[in-house]
Amino acid sequence: xxxxxxxxxxxVPNLGRSGELVSVKPGYSRNYLIPQGLALAATRxxxxxxxxxxxIIEARTTRTRKDAESLAQRIAGVTLQLDRQVGEGDKLFGxxxxxxxxxxxxxxxxxxxxxxxxxxxxxxxxxxxTVDIKLSRDVAAQVKVWVVAKQ
Length: 151
Description:
Layout: E1 4-8, E2 21-24, H1 26-33, E3 39-41, H2 44-76, E4 79-84, E5 91-96, H3 98-107, E6 117-118, E7 123-125, E8 127-136, E9 139-149
Parallel strand pairs: 4-9
Antiparallel strand pairs: 1-2, 1-3, 5-7, 6-8, 8-9
């Protein structure tokens, strides 16, 4: 199958980092990467522009990393308490998901996209849990979550 080259404007998991020239299938670039603003077609003009934009992308990446590091420090000092209804054997009705953690962090004044919150399995029982939050490519934080019975 024929592949075409595109220039990534942002990091794309399992594909490449921003500023890289990568080969992808035409449908993937036409239907996803370009409409989402994640990539540009690799024309001569765009490749020449890439050199200029690499500096801009590098500055943006540095700024994003610094923002993620400061957010990671704020998150490290937070402990969330989630009150949930429980049944027999301290089993929760439902479960605690990344959406619940996102809302609890929002109440603390910390805005995190729930897609960055990494819970292996939904939390279905009372107790203390440590939840990983991947803020950027190489910056991660952990938040402590207490799940307690609703009084």
